[in-house]
Amino acid sequence: MTQAFAAERALAAISLKGQLAHKFNWVIGIILGGGSLLVGMALWHHLLRDNSMAGYDWEAMRAYVVIGFVTITLAYGGAHGQVAERIVDGTVAIDLTRPVDFQRARAAEYIGSMIASLPTAVIGSVGAWLLFTPPAPASPLAGALTAFSILMLFPLSFEIVYLSALLCFWTRRYGTIMFARETLVGFFSGAMIPLALMPSWLQVLAWCLPFPHFTTTPSSIYLGRVDTVGALGLIAAEAAWAVGLWVLARVLWRHAVRQVTIHGG
């Protein structure tokens, strides 16, 4: 167990260093992410300048948009294509011969790459905080629970990316899967528009999925839209999704490896 953990820690460190070596990606991430954040702020300021929607006024929305920027930056910041590339080109067969758990090794690599996206998230959010001065969390406890909810995105984001990559065993293509995954996360997380502004049936559908925990859960806790019990319930649901998707990925992997083909065989 100790040797396995050491190997996974080494993989995470290698992935982190690899991502940090591409500092140009930070600049692009800050420019693109900062641009979308500014557009979002301008749009919501126009819509909420003199009124509110579904309990969101301009003050609350400033915090909501910043939290959405941080969570989506982290969710999209992981090196999501590596597993899919291994599957599509067949090199996953080599991984099967190595004395490491494939899923845990990929999780270490992915989380390492997610950590590399923290500078983009921090710089962007600090800039937004200075420009727009969003409100503080509803309480110190709400702030701590918000941070914990965001921390839970690391395993949850990996599992969604990993499961989508495993589909390449059957599709042999990744581009469409990646586009579909990012669209689902962006829409059903509430990053595009708050779920509270959607029709009730669509809100119910969204909460049947893991995606709201990317943006709606941390922002709801931060803004005090749920009490402490409600916040703990949301975090418990987020943790349950993380555990459940990990187990589902294990089951899918056992079936998926039967699809491995080498040199067309």
UniProtKB/TrEMBL annotation:
Pfam families: ABC2_membrane_6. It comes from the Bacteria. Keywords: Membrane, Transmembrane, Transmembrane helix. The chain crosses the membrane at residues 24-48, 60-79, 110-132, 144-171, 183-209, 229-249. Signal peptide: none annotated. This is ABC transporter permease. It comes from Glycomyces rhizosphaerae. The keyword Membrane applies.
